[in-house]
Design brief:
The protein is an alpha+beta fold. Helices cover about 55% and strands about 20% of the residues. The chain folds into four domains: about 110 residues; about 100 residues, 2-Layer Sandwich (Beta-Lactamase), CATH 3.30.450.20; about 100 residues, Helix Hairpins; about 150 residues, Histidine kinase-like ATPase, C-terminal domain (Heat Shock Protein 90, 2-Layer Sandwich), CATH 3.30.565. Helix 2 packs antiparallel against helix 3, helix 3 packs antiparallel against helix 4 and helix 8 packs antiparallel against helix 9. The longest helix has about 60 residues.
């Protein structure tokens, strides 16, 4: 400010000696740019005001009638206009320079405090680095990064050629990826994955590359773990498929074995049954000793039980092997159900169990395998009679529904313990609610019923309450029902 005052004094003395005010006014205007170096923007209008005052004062102090000279007045007016125009331009320049400086400072603060790593580089040399970038690669501060001979120091050796190619192409304006991933190396030697997004910027008047970097190591590790889990899953799926195929093959082999063994057993068993029946009935004369007849009767009874077991094994093996085919025909349930009840009357009478039936009105006929339907119903009736105490009742009901035909076999017997129904659907399983050694059974009846109903496209449902009884339902689908003509 002292320099400005001294210059004003010198110019003012010079102005008193030179009559034309325009040239001296321009000297005052030339003093305005000096105010650009002052920190206060308000100094510029003050300098312009002082220059205007000095120009007018110099005119007043001129000897003679210089003030009256029209030319001198015009010169001094133009000089004062030049002073204020210069001041206005200087103010605008100072304001623009201040805004630019503030913008650059805000940008620098934004970059320096960014959570993403930012580095500006040219020809492999770092020009700027923020603290996040230093933390990303393990450097103590930006100065350490700027001191590197090349930014390749934090790029994994096997990635450097590729990354350098991207940098060179981007500076030349050639085609380059908008963003790319690469493996970086930290100062402690550990490897990290980096997602880099470069862009060309102007730095000190020359093009440079600004790279914004993100640490994606956890994402890469998660993706790798996901891929490994997927590979393990696919491998386990292949192993499971092989195991299932092996199990199916073993199951087929088991079914084939059971079928062959059943056929092999039937031949001698038929002879045992036939000869024991001949002896039991004394077809060729008296045996001589009644004990022999009793033994023959026991042999015949046991043989019939064994034959029933073989028949069940044959049926189950055919079903599991997919060789059991339905011989479909028109089945009249109004005739089949009474016939099935007649076949178990002897067993029911022996166990003192009452048999009842309830058939719906106009029970329609169905397309089904007659023998399979009879077998299912006999299995359910035999089980119901077998597990019903003397004095109990077994009731058969059949009726038509919107979904088809339902046949229900209900008893008030011993029932099944909770949770055992699913197990009873497996071959050879038996209920544990009462001792079973006194009740003969193979444990194949219910699985055969379930499989035969599935072959018919229907469903088999079993429900029970311990000591209250059991209910079994056969559901034939609607497409098997024959619509009777009106």
């Amino acid at each position: 400010m002292a320099l400005c005052a001294a210059l004003f004094a010198a110019v003012f003395a010079f102005d008193l000696l030179i009559p034309p005010g325009f040239a001296v006014g321009l000297l005052y205007a030339a003093l305005i740019p000096i105010g650009l170096g002052l920190p206060q923007r308000q100094a510029l209008p003050a300098l312009a005001l002082i220059g205007t005052y000095m120009t007018m004062l110099a005119g007043l102090l001129q000897p003679g009638d210089a003030l009256a000279s029209q030319t001198d007045l015009i010169n001094r007016a133009v000089a004062m206009l030049a002073i204020w125009i210069t001041a206005a331009l200087a103010i605008r320049h100072k304001r623009s320079a201040g805004a630019l400086a503030e913008s650059e400072e805000r940008f620098r603060r934004l970059i320096e405090t960014s959570a993403q790593g930012v580095v500006i580089h040219r020809d492999g040399k770092a020009l700027f680095a923020n603290q996040a970038m230093c933390l990303l690669f393990g450097y103590d501060g930006p100065e350490e990064v700027l001191a590197l001979d090349s930014i390749d120091a934090y790029v994994a050796p096997h990635e450097r050629a590729r990354v350098r190619g991207y940098r060179a192409a981007r500076l030349k304006g050639d085609e380059a990826p908008v963003g790319y991933e690469y493996q970086g190396i930290r100062t402690d030697g550990s490897m990290i994955w980096v997602d880099c997004w470069p862009v060309v910027v102007d730095w000190d008047g020359e093009p440079a590359i600004q790279s914004v970097m993100f640490d994606i190591t956890e994402r890469k590790q998660a993706a790798q773990a996901l891929n490994e889990a997927r590979d393990d899953l696919e491998r386990h799926a292949v192993e499971l498929q092989k195991a299932m195929e092996a199990a199916e093959q073993a199951n087929r082999a088991k079914s084939d074995f059971l079928a062959r063994m059943s056929h092999e057993l039937r031949t001698p068993l038929n002879a045992i049954l036939g000869f024991s029946e001949v002896i039991k009935d004394e077809c060729f004369g008296a045996v001589g000793n009644s004990r022999y007849a009793e033994y023959a009767a026991d042999i015949h009874h046991s043989g019939r039980h064994l034959m029933a077991l073989i028949d069940d094994l044959l049926d189950l093996s055919k079903i599991e092997a997919g060789k059991r085919e339905l011989r479909e025909e028109i089945v009249d349930l109004a005739e089949l159900i009474p016939e099935a009840l007649h076949l178990v009357e002897g067993q029911a009478a022996q166990g003192q169990v009452a048999l009842e039936r309830e058939l719906g009105p106009a029970l329609p006929r169905i397309h089904a395998d007659y023998a399979a339907t009879m077998q299912m119903l006999l299995n359910l009736l035999s089980n119901a009679v077998k597990f019903t105490r003397p004095g109990g009742t077994v009731r058969v009901r059949a009726w038509a529904t919107a979904g088809g035909i339902e046949i229900e076999v209900r008893d008030d017997g011993i029932g099944i313990e909770p949770g055992a129904i699913d197990r009873l659907m497996a071959p050879f399983a038996q209920a544990e609610s009462v001792p079973t050694h006194s009740r003969q059974g193979t444990g194949l009846g219910l699985p055969i019923v379930k499989s035969l109903m599935e072959l018919h496209g229907g469903a088999f449902e079993l429900s029970s309450r311990l000591h209250r009884g059991t209910t079994a339902v056969l559901r034939f689908p609607a497409e098997r029902v024959i619509a009777e003509a009106a």
